[in-house]
Amino acid sequence: MKKTLLVAGGAGYIGSHTTKHLLQQGYDVVVLDNLVYGHQEAVLTEKFEKVDLKDKENLDKVFKKYNIDAVIHFAAYTYVGESVTSPSKYYWNNVVNTLNLLDTMRENDVKHIVFSSTCATYGNPKYMPLDEKHSQQPINPYGKTKFMMEQIMEDYENAYGFKYAALRYFNAAGADKDGQLGESHNPETHLIPLVLKTIKGERDNITVFGTDYDTPDGTCIRDYIHVEDLANAHRLALEKIISDNKTVKLNLGTGIGTSVKEIIDASERVTGKKVSVKYGERRAGDPSQLFAANDEAKRVLNWIPKYTKIEDIIETAWNWEINKKF
Ligand code: UDP
Question: Could you give the angle at the alpha carbon of 90 between the alpha carbons of 88 and 96, nearest 5°?
């Protein structure tokens, strides 16, 4: 019998795409979300509980009501800049409230969790591509909350027998190929949606943050990974930690670096329209290059990212941008 999974943060960007994928794979999926940043319209399962992770009593009721077998946890605040100005909000939500989730799991004898981590746990890169052995020294509160959770889960493994997948994402991008789901952040801070909104006429221009980096065209290089490839990796990671009863810590990226300028050029090619570009100062805390060594994820999960061309990723994002459902 297929398992019953709790997807915390299943109304958010990556959580909703993963929920869709899990349902397609025949899993019974319960979505839990406080809808602070998530969207009701993005919840694709009938089993939805509007519960905040700080509400341990109701969290426990959800575990008992559905007899949850395992958890995939996306529910977190993710704005790096805001985490610097409002660290309290980040430590309470991303750490303390997640402890409620782990303890509710423990009390209900649920021991498997797939956790959204981030390449931001590595801090300033010492070499490229980044592999999982790279030291973890996050440089902002957001990255620190994710690193703390990785450490806490390690302790929960040693003491209580938890097994977890810490999935360290690079830059999540793109949208559901059916056009049912996509990225809808408020405020939007990410490069690809901002470029596409500018092309659409919702914004006057896109500012390139820094043109004097030590990269071939002077702009920052990132590793953009399609959200459906992330969704698939979450399912594979869940199945792996359950079947082997073993913890995994994996980078999720394509291994391909794309510069800000290349994103702008590719967006113009995909949409057939020009974008108005401004050249600005560097954004504080941005490393010049970040891309993943993804051999471990490929080997351990038998995972193959399908979207390896940036145009294909942008095309799905553009389709969403012009036909948005929420
Ligand atoms: N970026 C930019 N202009 C913007 C937003 C982002 O030049 O308006 C750059 C940013 O400096 C980084 C890349 O685009 O090099 C990706 O940024 P994003 O915020 O999408 O993701 P991050 O890498 O910060 O997680």
Answer: 90
